[in-house]
């Protein structure tokens, strides 16, 4: 075993302290990985005996101790790759423990505790890193000074540190071969100053969730001609979107949650032929989205929600190859154009919270792949086209409109997980076919004109988390089998923060960016706003006269039944006292008689 050169115990179920025996005698070992285990406490001193070690990965454990107190680093001068991220190490901010590591090219220290050196001195390292990650470190007040002497970085991640001051443009000027700079979730202020030289290698730039202000620089595409993705969301940028912000290679652009005004420049479509993902949500945009004759030919994802667009919906935004469109929370008016059915590839469509009127066009049934349909809070009227029963819908939100008709066709969509039809004028009985919706998690039929008895088949919905049929005209006895509902734990996907199906999977290729350093295949997950590209699910549920909106991960835990304000009669079944996992049960404003079940009192 002394001739062993590679040893990996990665992604195991190992825990406790690393022993001094065994592997510490492997004098010829070159690559050693303990990543993603449950090891803790300090590193064994004999680790310093492995002087041939080139690759050491300790990430994702619970190791402790001050890096400066480990003398072993002085002996491991052959290291090229070192990952100590996601531990509880105390790491001196000067990093001068690695001053003699001339071969070091990969250093990942994120999510540890940064400490100030007692004898802090600027030093010039003997190494030139290609990859450096210092994300999420406690106590980091400024960037390590040794970075001023790095000129060959390809990937630099300084996310999640709340670093203050101006944006460090000097990092780009010093490292002209930098391909990815990730600086999200800091406290950088002032304008985003671009480097004085043209940067020919930068492909990914993420400055989201800072306090950057002023106008979006007009010459980004010329400063970074190879840019693939740009994320400037969650800042304080204002003014118009520059007409030349795009570029020949640009595939993803996120400018959401700023104060941008004006329109979407048509040059963005012409000058960015590779644009795949565009998110301009939550700004002050008002004018034309794209011209009638041109739109990005490869645009799959378009998010324009939370702006001030008005007038009729432009029909060209429904064109192929778009698969996800969010135009919600704007001021669009008029009817939904018949051209909505022209794009048979559409998976997700959200037109909620606008001023759309008229009927839902029958052409919507051409969307043979549609999984998410959200038309909430408009002025839509008439019946829902019966042909929707043939669509593979998983989430349908038609609440707060003026829709009429019966539920028969809508309750034949076996793939449904969410059905929100509240605040309309649907009438008739709840069909018995509701029992076939075996995947249903959320059922909201409140504030309609439904009548008749609650069918026993509703008790077959064993994945149900929230049921609201309040403010209808339902009558008859309360089903005792309702006591068996909402008892099982939710599946992992139930109550997910986002509608995610094929869309998230299709985008995963864009989220993983591979960089090479010598013979190591160094991969880095791009932590950008693209990872939350899906349309957020929101469910309104009323308890104690308070209407609350539940969203995100909380939906996984919320469980409730509301049968209030109907005409239900008889006694409350004692079985309803078995609803131990429920958070809200409203039976008020009915005509029940008899005693309150003992289970209610115990709860």
From TrEMBL:
GO terms for cellular component: membrane. It is a single-pass membrane protein. InterPro entries: Leu-rich_rpt (IPR001611), LRR_dom_sf (IPR032675), RLP_Defense_Trigger (IPR051502). Pfam families: LRR_1. The keyword Zinc does not apply. Its main location: membrane. It is found in: Membrane. Keywords: Leucine-rich repeat, Membrane, Repeat, Transmembrane, Transmembrane helix. The keyword Transmembrane applies. Belongs to the RLP family. This is Leucine-rich repeat-containing N-terminal plant-type domain-containing protein. It comes from Capsicum baccatum.
